[in-house]
Design goal:
It is built from 3 helices and 2 strands. It is mainly alpha-helical. The protein has one domain: 2-Layer Sandwich (Alpha-Beta Plaits). Strands 1-2 form a two-stranded antiparallel ribbon. The protein is globular, with a radius of gyration of 13 Å. The N and C termini lie far apart (about 35 Å).
């Protein structure tokens, strides 16, 4: 999976901010702004059928998004807290 191509696809498909980066542990990640967890999973499976989706990670992301939404009245699909 080419992360640069994936970020461009996600940004265009969902009309949102999207970036590929490295975590502190050196892993690659894609950060997508917006509440599009289910749509992203469906798009990944349709576009890259060989990519395995960790359902527990998507559930954790959804739970974090819901928690942020409850606490701050908003939410992001990557689970980051809004800054002031």
């Amino acid at each position: 999976m080419d992360l640069k191509k994936a970020t461009k696809l996600f940004a265009n498909k969902f009309a949102c901010g999207c970036a590929a980066s490295k975590t502190a542990a050196g892993n690659s990640e894609v950060i997508i702004q917006g509440d599009v967890v289910d749509e992203v999973v469906d798009l990944i499976q349709a576009t890259w059928p060989s990519v395995r989706i960790d359902r527990s990670a998507t559930e954790a992301c959804r739970a974090t998004t819901n928690l942020v939404r409850r606490l701050f009245g908003c939410g992001t699909s990557d689970g980051r807290l809004p800054t002031t």
